[in-house]
Automatic annotation (TrEMBL):
Species assigned in the record: Flavobacterium cheonhonense
Name of this protein: Protein-glutamine gamma-glutamyltransferase-like C-terminal domain-containing protein
Keywords assigned: Membrane, Transmembrane, Transmembrane helix
Transmembrane segments: 95-117
InterPro entries associated with the record: TgpA-like_C
Domain Protein-glutamine gamma-glutamyltransferase-like C-terminal stretches: 169-236
Alphabetized Pfam families for the sequence: DUF4129 (PF13559)
Length: 243
């Protein structure tokens, strides 16, 4: 009896399902249009997705050593001066670096101009209106350009007798060269000049002046006013004869 009841229940459910499906088909419209076959993906479809808006991977930019140095400075600016904004700190670094660069350029230009003035005695684009200043070590090399009268006035004012004798002797060589009595050269000795002088009187005077010069300048002979006046008169006498 139980078996018969079970079969009857299954047949009843099947009939009910069929009736429900038939009723649903009446209410719904079934689309019988055949589906078109998909054309598939285009071969170059990947090229459409290479633009920046389709790039989702974040790439870290390679920073140069200079950029890292500025960031390091900005960090210390921020730390030392208590700056809260990193952008403000970076701006201070940029301004500081520009100021330092400007100062370096000005200093380099100053050094170049200083070297030019000391070496040439004039500006690059104009002649100097002042006389060339020659240091003591270069006097013999620039004998023709030296104003010995001016040097002697300053030296005598300072009571530097030894240096005055040196200037007197070099002035005598300059005068002898200007008169074409000797051929002046920085490497020549006093004896070389002595052989070039033809006048007997002038040769004797020059020999005596050379003796005074060697004895006072190289011998470091300490002179008093009396001995200096005697040597000065001997030089002045020879220079007067060459004018």
């Amino acid at each position: 009896m139980l078996f018969s009841i079970s079969n009857w229940s299954q047949e009843t459910l099947t009939v009910a399902e069929k009736d429900s499906l038939a009723l649903l088909e009446k209410k719904c419209k079934v689309d019988q249009t055949p589906m078109e076959k998909s054309a598939g993906l285009a071969p170059d479809f990947k090229s459409k997705y290479k633009a920046n808006e389709f790039q989702y991977e974040v790439k870290l930019s390679d920073k140069s050593l200079w950029d890292r140095f500025k960031e390091w400075l900005a960090y210390w600016f921020k730390k030392i001066f208590g700056i809260s904004d990193a952008k403000v700190s970076s701006n201070y670094v940029e301004i500081t670096l520009k100021v330092l660069a400007g100062l370096i350029v000005i200093y380099v230009v100053y050094l170049i101009v200083k070297v030019i003035l000391n070496k040439e005695g004039q500006w690059v684009f104009g002649k100097s209106t002042t006389k060339k200043i020659i240091h003591d070590d270069d006097i013999e090399k620039n004998l023709v350009h030296v104003d010995f009268e001016k040097l002697l006035k300053q030296t005598l004012k300072e009571d530097n007798h030894r240096l005055a004798i040196r200037y007197y002797y070099l002035w005598t060589l300059k005068k002898l060269s200007e008169r074409n009595i000797i051929e002046w050269h920085v490497d020549k000795t006093n004896t070389d000049y002595l052989y070039e002088i033809q006048s007997k009187e002038l040769k004797d005077n020059f020999q005596y002046l050379s003796y005074l010069y060697n004895y006072i300048w190289y011998g470091e002979f300490e002179m008093n006013d009396t001995t200096f006046n005697q040597a000065q008169k001997a030089f002045e006498k020879t220079l007067q004869s060459l004018r």
